[in-house]
Amino acid sequence: MVWKLVKDAPVEKIKDTPFASYYVSHGKNLYPSNAAGHPWTASFIQSKDDPIASLHEDLAAEQKARATYEYLINVSDDPGVTDTLRFLREREVVHFQRFGEALCIVQEHIDKKKYY
Question: Global pTM?
Fold first, then answer.
C-alpha cells in the first residue's frame, strides 16, 4: 500500500514533506521502520520457551497493531487507503481472537490431570 501511494509521486511533491528524509535514504522502496524512523529489527519480537507467555505476547502484539491501524485511519483522507486499513484492522481482531482460543486450549491442557 505504501509503495502504491508513492511510486508515481514526482520528486517535486516529495520535497519539503516529512517523506523527504526517508526518500533521500531509501528512494521509493520499502524499508521497514517504526513511525519514528527506527529500522525494524528482530528485537521487536519477544519470545520465551513458555507457550502461555508467548501467547500473551502475541495477544498484546495484535492489540498494538489494531490500535496503530485505528490511528492511521484517523489521519487518512484517502478512501482507498482507509478501506485497506479497516480490513487490516479487522484482521488483527480475528488474529487476537484466534490467539485467545489457542491460549485457552494450552491452559486447559496444562491444567488437565495427567495419567501416566
Answer: 0.73
